[in-house]
């Protein structure tokens, strides 16, 4: 059963939403809160350790009804079945999309092209487990017989952002190994990392699904050359590991076959941290914590698969986001975690959301005349309050925001935690209610200054409130956003799992690199030509 290809704007639900929008676009949310003491209860989902309050949104029961009707008309349920069953839903690349299989429970049977993939999934998991244990315990040693102290993940995009974000977010759970991430083709990146390393005690994990990515291969080559300044060719097998689908290319690079951790075409790069791409995570926090991350994701998969849509967290968040994106014309969404640990979370989500849903052609190959993927950005609170919150509160743009918070801190510092959480609660309250002229005057503000001090409020937020940051709760949170991406791709009738838009720049960079070597430049606009000449003159 293929995914239905339905233009959402042709549905009755869409037309209902359009006319409904006209009736509520100017209504202040305050009115609805005043009218209904139970509004928050009606728009809150409690599930396991998640408490998701979406009442501070510009929606009513009627909005919600039409949004749910939209899921019926685009046949979301059928699409979800195709997704979880391993059908070829990534039609443009002719692949299944099965990151969910990587966290499925023992005994699961999931077929790709008629073959059960689970035995292989579990055998790679075993390999990750044993390898992590041997490195962490010191059983496996480097070429001078010393235990490993450092791990360098060499990858980019999905082969970097997921592991880097998770290792950083779960640093509280880290062991003695120091982890580093090298991604940028900028040689200053790799050289800064090398500065900190001792080749005798460093493990290098080269992660590339395709093993053709310029950045990763260049960085791996630079590191290998640096390593060989003090070690021999035979020592490579003790220090270089690779994660890839492209076994031949990995072998050509010089990595031992036993040091290769396979992955599969049915895992998209930006959804791959659950596979051996997460090896650095397993090394940094230990395999049982890595398994708990996967368990959390699996629980969210089950919730998404089985929960009715009105209380299904990824579905509800996806629908609310469509509402702002397509009816209020909101261009972006802010992700504001009230946890310094989630410092890299928005950066990670940018690839997930924007590479997946940044599309302007529908599943029938036709140009789209409605909005698709939102711009994702954000930084942790409370820092961001002192940076860009001014624009969210008083700017001209509507910016729906997800506030992610954890009730208990990891270091048990109650005093800081109460202050942090006071800010967390205060901000969504302020964004909802604003401050009107009479309140400003009551504060003793002189009349002429009142316009500047009035806050309109009516700014939408979701509060994603979780008990504590653990590997399991982080797994749930990441999977929640993965499924939100899926639901939106279905509604917008786009292919969320290809990324052809990344190719053109790569092709042109290849051409320019050759031209720089030969010092001849052809077929450029005159701006680019001037820039190239200027570069040549300076270098
Ligand atoms: O893992 P790799 O094959 O090296 O790919 C790394 C990255 O490359 C490309 O730019 C893709 O757009 C990303 O989706 C991918 O994650």
TrEMBL record:
On whether Ligase is a keyword of this UniProt record, the answer is no
Where in or outside the cell?
A: Cytoplasm
**Which class of enzymes does this protein belong to?**
isomerase
Key words of the record: Cytoplasm, Gluconeogenesis, Glycolysis, Isomerase
Q: In which pathway does it act?
A: Carbohydrate biosynthesis; gluconeogenesis; Carbohydrate degradation; glycolysis; D-glyceraldehyde 3-phosphate and glycerone phosphate from D-glucose: step 2/4
What Gene Ontology terms describe what this protein does at the molecular function level?
glucose-6-phosphate isomerase activity
Q: Which CDD domains match?
A: SIS_PGI_1 (cd05015), SIS_PGI_2 (cd05016)
Query: Where are the active-site residues found?
Result: 355, 386, 506
User: What EC number(s) does this enzyme carry?
Assistant: 5.3.1.9
One Pfam family name is PGI
Reaction(s) the record says it catalyses: alpha-D-glucose 6-phosphate = beta-D-fructose 6-phosphate
Task: Please tell me where this protein is predominantly located.
Answer: cytoplasm
PROSITE patterns from the entry? P_GLUCOSE_ISOMERASE_1, P_GLUCOSE_ISOMERASE_2, P_GLUCOSE_ISOMERASE_3
Homology family:
Belongs to the GPI family.
Chain's role: Catalyzes the reversible isomerization of glucose-6-phosphate to fructose-6-phosphate.
Q: Which NCBIfam families match?
A: PRK00179.1 (NF001211)
Protein name (record): Glucose-6-phosphate isomerase
């Amino acid at each position: 059963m293929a995914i239905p290809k339905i233009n959402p704007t042709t549905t009755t639900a869409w037309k209902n939403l359009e006319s409904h929008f006209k009736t509520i676009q100017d209504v202040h949310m305050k009115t609805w809160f005043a009218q209904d003491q139970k509004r928050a209860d009606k728009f809150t989902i409690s599930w396991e350790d998640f408490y998701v309050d979406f009442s501070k949104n510009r929606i009513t029961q009627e909005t919600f009804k039409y949004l749910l009707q939209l899921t019926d008309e685009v046949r979301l349920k059928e699409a979800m079945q195709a997704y979880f069953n391993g059908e070829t839903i990534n039609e443009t690349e002719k692949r299944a999309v099965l990151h969910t299989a990587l966290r499925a429970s023992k005994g699961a049977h999931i077929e790709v092209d008629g073959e059960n993939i689970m035995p292989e999934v579990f055998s790679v998991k075993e390999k990750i487990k044993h390898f992590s244990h041997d490195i962490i315990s010191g059983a496996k040693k480097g070429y001078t017989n010393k235990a490993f102290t450092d791990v360098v993940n060499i990858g980019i995009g999905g082969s970097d952002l997921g592991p880097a974000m998770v290792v950083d977010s779960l640093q509280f759970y880290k062991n003695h190994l120091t982890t580093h991430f090298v991604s940028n083709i900028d040689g200053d990146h790799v050289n800064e990392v090398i500065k900190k390393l001792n080749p005798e005690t460093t493990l290098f994990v080269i992660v590339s699904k395709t093993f053709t990515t310029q950045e990763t291969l260049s960085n791996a080559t630079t590191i290998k050359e640096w390593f060989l300044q003090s070690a021999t060719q035979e020592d490579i097998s003790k220090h270089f590991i690779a994660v890839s689908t492209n076994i031949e290319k990995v072998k050509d690079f010089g990595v031992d076959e036993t040091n290769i951790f396979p992955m599969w075409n049915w895992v998209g790069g930006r959804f791959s941290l659950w596979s051996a791409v997460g090896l650095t995570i397993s090394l940094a926090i230990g395999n049982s914590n890595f398994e708990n991350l996967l368990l959390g994701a699996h629980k969210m998969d089950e919730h998404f698969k089985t929960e009715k849509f009105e209380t299904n967290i990824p579905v509800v968040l996806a629908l609310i986001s469509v509402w702002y994106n397509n009816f209020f014309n909101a261009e972006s969404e802010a992700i504001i975690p009230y946890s310094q640990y989630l410092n890299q979370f928005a950066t990670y989500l940018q690839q997930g959301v924007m590479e997946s849903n940044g599309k302007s052609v529908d599943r029938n190959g036709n140009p789209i005349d409605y909005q698709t993927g939102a711009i994702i950005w954000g930084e942790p609170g409370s820092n961001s309050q002192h940076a860009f919150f001014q624009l969210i509160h008083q700017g001209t743009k509507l910016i729906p925001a997800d506030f992610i918070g954890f009730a208990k801190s990891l270091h048990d510092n109650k005093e800081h935690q109460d202050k942090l959480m006071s800010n967390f609660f205060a901000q969504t309250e302020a964004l909802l209610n604003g401050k009107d002229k009479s309140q400003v005057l009551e504060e003793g503000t002189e009349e002429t200054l009142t316009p500047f001090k009035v806050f309109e409020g009516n700014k939408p937020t979701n509060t994603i409130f979780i008990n504590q940051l653990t590997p399991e709760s982080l797994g749930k949170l990441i999977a929640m956003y993965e499924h939100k991406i899926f639901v939106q791709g279905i509604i917008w009738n786009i292919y969320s799992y290809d990324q052809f838009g990344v190719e053109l720049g790569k092709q042109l960079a290849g051409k320019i690199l050759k031209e720089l070597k030969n010092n001849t430049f052809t077929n450029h606009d005159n701006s680019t030509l001037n820039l190239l000449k200027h570069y040549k003159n300076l270098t």
